[in-house]
Every structure is written in C-alpha cells, then in structure tokens.
Design goal:
- The structure is a homodimer.
- Chain A contains eleven helices and eleven strands.
- By secondary structure, chain A is an alpha/beta fold.
- Chain A has two domains: 163 residues, 3-Layer(aba) Sandwich (Isopropylmalate Dehydrogenase); 151 residues, Isopropylmalate Dehydrogenase, CATH 3.40.718.
- In chain A, strand 5 and strand 6 form a beta hairpin.
- In chain A, helix 1 crosses helix 10, helix 6 packs antiparallel against helix 11 and helix 8 runs antiparallel to helix 9.
- Chains A, B: Keywords: Acyltransferase, Cytoplasm, Lipid biosynthesis, Lipid metabolism, Phospholipid biosynthesis, Phospholipid metabolism, Transferase.
Chain lengths: 329, 329
C-alpha cells in the first residue's frame, strides 16, 4: 500500500515528518511511503535511505496562516495539494498531513472529492476519556450548520470507523445533547433523534457533555459548532486546572516537595488527556483516506498516523462507508 | 423592599431556606422577607422570629421531577407559583427559589411575565474563572433555538446586569464562537456579530470556549444549546480531573502524605471552580426579579441570593433593562 505524506506540514516540518516516515518505513515493509515536498529539504533530513520511501518534489508550501480555499486553489504545486492529487489519481491509498487544518479539509473536498451520497465530510477527533479508551466525536468543525441528515451520516461514518479501525464490535453511538431524554434539545437534535434510532448503528440515545470524559459511548455525533464548543471547553478546563496545580505546587517548600512525589502520576495523566496525543484525525466522507496529524506532532505521532492509515486501508474503511451510504439512498 | 422566598424549593427545604432567610433578615433590616410555603413546616424551622419575616401559607409543592409547564399550570397553590404571583402583583419586589429550574423558568414566563419587547428570557450563570472574577454567561438553556435578535437582547441584558449588580463600569461582552475572527462561526453567530457591533454595549468580539476560564470578558453571549454544552463540558472536565487527582493522591503512602500538604489549596480551588457556589442565577427578561438558587444551596447561599436581589432592586435592574429594550425598538 502507498501512503503519501505531506513532508512540509506541521510546526517542525520537514524534520520530524521525515523522522516519523523513516520509523514507519522500518516498522512496516508492506508500506510504501511517498514523501511530498521540497526534495532538497527532505534529503537533508534523510538519515537513512530505505527502499520503501520515495520523494515527490514540489515547489510550494501552504502555511499555517494561509486562507484555506485560496491557498488550495492557487498553490497547485504545494506539498499538501500534490499529496491530495496522488490520492485522487489512486497513486496513493492515503495521505497524511500535519499542516493547515482548513486547507487540508479543502484539499479533501476539492482535490480528493466526496464519497458519492455524502453531503458533508466531517472532522473527527478521538477525545481522550478517563479510562484511556477515548471516544470518537464528529463533526468538530468541518461544517458549522448541520442538518439532521448530516448528523445521520456522521453517525454511520463514525460507527464504521470505530468498528473497522479500532475493532469495536458494536460501537455505541450517542447524540450530543442538553439532556438524556429523547425529546430534549434544539430543533436539530430533536429531528435527528428518530433518524438515529432507525439507522444501521447501535444508537444509545443522548449524551450530555458533562459525561463525555466518562466514556459512556464510542461515538459522539454533533454539529460542527457544538462539537467545537465542547472540545475547546474540555481543553480549556484541563489546561486551566493544570496551571492552577502548578501554582499550588510551587507555593512553599512543603508543597514543592509534595509536588515532586505526585508529578510522575500527574504527568502521565496530562499526557493521557492531551487530545493531540491521540493519533491523527481522519476526514470522514472523503473518497480517499485523508488523515490530519496535529501541527505539533513529533516523529512518533507521524509514525502512529501511518499505523492508523495502514489499518484503515487494510480494512477498506472508505469502501465500507461508501457501501453503507449508497445502501441508505 | 420585599423579597418572596420559595421555602419549599431545594434539596434541604424548608430547613436551610428558613435558616438563610433568618440570616438575611438579621443582616439587612431594610429587607422584608416573605417565606412562602407550608406554614407548619416553616414554623418548625424558625429558631427566631424577627419582625421583618412573614409567612405566606401554601398547600402545594412543585417537586424536582415535576414536568415544568404542567406543574405550574396545575399547582396554583404551590410555594413557587404563589411567590411568582406576589411578584406579578407587586406585593414582592423579587422572588428566590432553589426549586425545579424548568418550573421556575415557566413561573417567570407564565406567572410573572416577560418585559415588553423581550422575545425570550435567558437563563444566566456566573461561570467561575481562574482569577475568581467570574464571567456571566447567557443563555444557558432557557431557549434552545435562538435567533440573532435574541442574542442581541441577551447581550444588552447581560451587560446591564454586570453594570448594575456587579458594579462593572464598562462590561466587556463577547460572543461565544469557534474562532476569534469576525467571519467565523455558524449562520447564527455570523448574523449576530454585526448586530452586537452596533449595540449599546462594549462588544469585544468572539471568544472561544477554551478561553472562558481565563476571564477575558465579563459577559458571554450564546444560544441556549451551545451555552449548555459549554457549561456542562467545563463542569465535566473539572469533576473528572478531581476524581483523577483523588486516585493519584491515594496511590501510596508517599502520595497520601504529599496530598495532605496540597489538599487545603486544592480544596479552595475546587470551591472556587464550583459554579453552584457563585450565587443565584437571575432569569433575565422577566418583568420582575426572579432568582434561581442551586438545588443544593446551603443557608449561606440563600442569604447571598437575598444580597443579590437587594442590590438588583436598589439599582432597578428590571427597569433599566426595560428602558434599554424599548429604546432599541
């Protein structure tokens, strides 16, 4: 299988991206990696030359601050757009990028294209949960004004992803809402609820955002606006709490000593709660595999994204979504 | 000034409600308190008989699980509905209840009534922030499908509340959104943004939910659905983190000793972050003062609600909102 990696995307590109690609190439010899980007810069980072890595030279880069649609339209020879084109032309089975999220969504939509029947692709994250299992949430911002039909498609795509990529036999799908009763919510969730009840998924009803971290489900469905509010609220609360802990820990000599004892456990916990650590985020609904790694990804995160892509390719994730969506039409 | 208190609402009613009323009556002799509820049960809790407390006997109680609209319509002699009627008939300047939130919103709407020109009243909370100042957020669930005009009215009401009740000279009002740029968001926030720019408030633009706890504004405006998702996400994250801390603390003898040193600071912090501790929640847009105390309120919380009501009455909060809204029409 062939995986195209945008070597120029991310805070520490191309260095960590190339490092991650080298690690992945060594680990899985059934994977051929195509590093897309400035060949001189990439060559400079190549400490080894494994046979299953090739370089596709490009002359442009989409920056973190570039306006997504403009950038994708104009920078036709950017590493991200070229990687997308490889997927569309079936020269690659998947692409991975740690670059500009908006531009990657646009690349997915405009360059790779949607699965027939999918109205809106969704941006997905695995939100870390207290037990370490994580819950897949979608949409988290690809589409701000969703309809009930969009939510239904998100639910089907999320359920297939959890089953195919994470091996969960009967993923529990829940609808993000303001209460657990069926009749709760806004017009959107009230209309979506009966659709979800009839969908080919294991729908377990509404979930409130206060229960997300307790892992009571495997997939959370929401519109991009509410999902983004939820994700950033959780993120903000975790970050605020840790900065307070830091203050408490450095107050006196005694608290400093106490902190030294507790730090290892807390550090591990902080890492567990960091959603950027939880692998790459797939763009679901695109007619090809597009994975977004966090901008601050290290080499291990890039290697893990290759692992995810590999499983998704082996299990024919995109084909399974396409089949299920066309069956519902 | 006369303040009606629903003596039968809340987890520990009427005991803690009566205790709180007694404390308030002692502290402010310009306040006349009307305890509304079962006179026998109330009398049994009255350890003193201050001159500025009277009892208004009622025979019914709205329970925590009662269906709000039905309960308010049918239980005409319930303590909550009778307190609302006292406000409508100008026999009380304010009412306070720690009872069923939905029923209290319904009492506000159906018994007390809306301010002329207000389309939807809003449920308000002070979300605790890291610096202790708190940010007033509305709407947090009174109205699930808001229009841009509703958000505009929330902004005006929230700004007046912060200025009148909390003495903030020029309250900073922000719009809850998925990014800080003006053009970000869903149809609702994109339509509301220019309205807020032209409103008689100090509008500072969008705020992301990850920054709410950093107190970058005094008022956050949002629709009831998104607001509820934000509030419960913050609440869920704080609660999940503290249960993890508890686990870390009790792992070994060393961590237990370390925890003992850190506990006082963390306990104070936990209290600071508990939004139920931050006074009563006003229902804004009602033509009379209606305050919701948390169901688990203790006597101090009830006394503090009287303090809030007293300031709001003195500053003519409801009159100020009414004047500003009619000016905009």
């Amino acid at each position: 299988m062939r995986i195209a990696i945008d070597a120029m995307g991310g805070d520490d590109a191309p260095k960590v991206v190339v490092e991650g690609a080298l690690q992945a190439a060594k680990e899985w010899n059934d994977v051929e990696i195509i590093l897309v980007g400035d060949s001189v810069a990439i060559e400079a980072c190549m400490t080894e030359r494994p046979a299953n890595i090739t370089i596709q030279h490009t002359t442009e880069v989409i920056g973190a601050d570039d306006e997504p649609v403009k950038a994708v339209r104009r920078k036709k020879d950017s590493s991200m757009v070229v990687a997308g084109r490889l997927v569309r032309e079936k020269k690659a089975d998947a692409m991975i990028s740690a670059g500009n999220t908006g531009a990657l969504m646009t690349t997915g939509l405009l360059i790779v294209g949607r699965i027939a029947g999918i109205e809106r692709p969704a941006l997905v994250y695995i939100i870390p949960t207290m037990d370490g299992s994580g819950v897949l949430a979608l949409d988290l911002g690809a589409n701000m004004d969703a309809t009930a039909e969009h939510l239904l498609q998100y639910a089907i795509m999320g359920s297939i992803y959890r089953s195919k990529v994470d091996g969960i036999v009967k993923p529990r799908v829940a609808l993000l809402n303001v209460g657990t009763e069926a009749q709760k919510g806004n017009e959107l969730t009230k209309t979506a609820y009966p659709l979800l009840e009839q969908a080919p998924i294991h729908f377990i009803g509404n979930i409130e955002s206060r229960d997300v971290l307790n892992a009571q489900c495997d997939v959370i469905v929401c519109d991009g606006f509410a999902g983004n509010i939820m994700l950033k609220s959780l993120e903000g609360a975790v970050s605020a709490l840790f900065s307070t802990l830091k203050q408490e820990f450095t107050k006196t000599l005694f608290t400093k000593l106490a902190a030294a004892v507790l730090k290892p456990g807390l550090k591990a916990f902080r890492k567990k709660m960091d959603y950027t650590e939880h692998g790459a985020a797939p763009l679901l609904g695109i007619d090809g595999l597009v994975l977004k790694s966090h901008g601050s990804s290290n080499a291990t995160a890039i290697k893990n994204a290759v692992r995810q892509a590999r499983i998704a390719i082996q299990s024919d994730l995109v084909g399974a979504i396409s089949t299920e969506i066309s069956r519902g039409k």
